[in-house]
Amino acid sequence: MPHAIALYSGGLDSSLAILTLLRLGVKVTAVHFITSFGCAVSSNDLVRQAQRYGFELLTEDVSEEFLGLVKRPLFGYGKNMNPCIDCKIMMLQRAGEVMRQRGADCVATGEVVGQRPMSQQRHIFNLMEKKTDLKGYILRPLSALLLPPTIVEQRGDIDRKRLYGFSGRSRKPQLALAEELGLLEYPAPAGGCLLTEPNYSGRLRELLGHDPNPSLRDIEMLRIGRHFRLPGGSKLIIGRNEQDNSRLRDFISEDTIVLETLEVKGPLCVITNRIVSEEDLLRSAHLCARYSDGRDKTSIPVAVRQGDHLRIVKANPFEGVGLQCLMIKN
What we know:
Layout: E1 3-7, H1 12-23, E2 27-34, H2 43-53, E3 56-61, H3 63-71, H4 84-102, E4 106-108, H5 122-132, E5 138-139, H6 151-155, H7 172-181, H8 198-210, H9 216-221, E6 226-229, E7 235-238, H10 242-249, E8 257-261, E9 269-271, H11 278-290, E10 300-306, E11 309-315, H12 317-323
Parallel strand pairs: 1-2, 1-4, 2-3, 4-5
Antiparallel strand pairs: 6-7, 7-9, 8-9, 8-10, 10-11
């Protein structure tokens, strides 16, 4: 039985590639790489899909390495902050290592010729093979008929005639195949990478401009709430709703400065810097008050906590109006 190591995001295309191989009697070991920039599929969903369809699932956290790649991509960015070519080369290299360790026959991906203008082109596929030392071993089941046969196809281990020749940006062929293969759940197409999103990329670009070596905590917090860069250089994050407030609480440590309105309902506000100027602290309190239910009042008490230290600041919501221009946008 041939054995394939499949790159698995949990999205439509990677899922279809795996199900296609399973239908051909191929043993599949799916590898899911965890970065700080994925958003489409939860780990529970991945496990559930693996159990439902009968393939092995491996996960590997490559967040630290991937962050370095995002900061300095050898092959540049796509439209936003997405280093697609560098990303795929790194993941193929890792999958190739698993292939050799497991004695597998190929690495499979859900790539489709012409679907992505930067990374899913024939000449880029050739570049990936060269950079990963996987020439002849990268199988793309959804577009195989448009590409040179891989070694497993040449040997007859996998029936090339039962693979596909999808191309272009239309998802209609994939959606039809999903129905045929009984793929019941998958995220919306193009929803898997935050680095392709303009607003998120703007936040990341701004963060790297202030701190060339941000922590993974700072990266994770880019997903949450409204972000402000204060004149003194401090970073303020304000929750937009209860879900944001709950997620922000997960990042609170002894050193975190937390602001919350008293007497009126308001958002959870977090300053990511450990040390903050008095001016930035007061500005943060005004913004906290501005986004509370007491925005029509002239003064609101705001609790400022850092570890066991508590301080009450009188904040003016109307002063927060003028500070809204400090919000980080794309």
